[in-house]
Amino acid sequence: MGPFVVDSNFFIQAHRATYPLDVAVSFRGKVKQLALDGKIISIDKVKNEIYQNDDELKKWCVVNLPDIFFKDTSQVIPEYTQIVNWAVSRRSHFQQKALDEFLDADEADAWLISYSFANHNTIITQEILQPEKKNKIKIPDACIPFGIHYMNTIEMFRQLGEQF
């Protein structure tokens, strides 16, 4: 198993709610070390989502994450095509708004799944499995058909044996 691939909400929810930069210094230190050790990575589309706001989170990422942290997704077009085809095949279940959002090439979720599918990575996301949901395609719901593993931040820390 390769490094864990983190979703935007790994950073954004931590920053806004559970581990704010000004309080959870040890959490940020742990994230920085895991990134430097290559145990966690992310993708270019997640970077774009984080960097669209010129805030403290963006500044922290620029200073603390290695240059190779955000991986290029242009190499996973075949996997992306499979993920897109799966989503389109579910159009009778999902609302058009959900499909439009998931299939937007600037949105990270389908690319995150595609990258993880291509490289046999586990996705770290705060999203939970909600197959009955019709107005949003959640990452876990799209992972299941492709056998992609996912877990939340705390589960990842436990699997890595990390404490802070």
Secondary-structure topology with pairs:
Blueprint: E1 4-6, H1 8-18, H2 25-36, E2 40-43, H3 44-51, H4 56-64, E3 70-71, H5 77-89, H6 96-103, H7 109-119, E4 123-124, H8 139-143, E5 150-151, H9 153-160
Parallel strand pairs: 1-2, 1-4, 2-3, 4-5
Q: Your description of this structure?
A:
This protein is an alpha/beta fold and 164 residues long. It has a single domain, classed as 5'-nuclease (Rossmann fold). Helices cover 52% and strands 8% of the residues. The protein has nine helices and five strands. The protein has a five-stranded parallel beta sheet with strand order 3-2-1-4-5. Helix 8 links the parallel strand 4 (123-124) and strand 5 (150-151). Helix 5 (77-89) packs across helix 7. The longest helix is centred in the middle third of the chain and has 13 residues, at 77-89. The chain starts with a strand and ends with a helix.
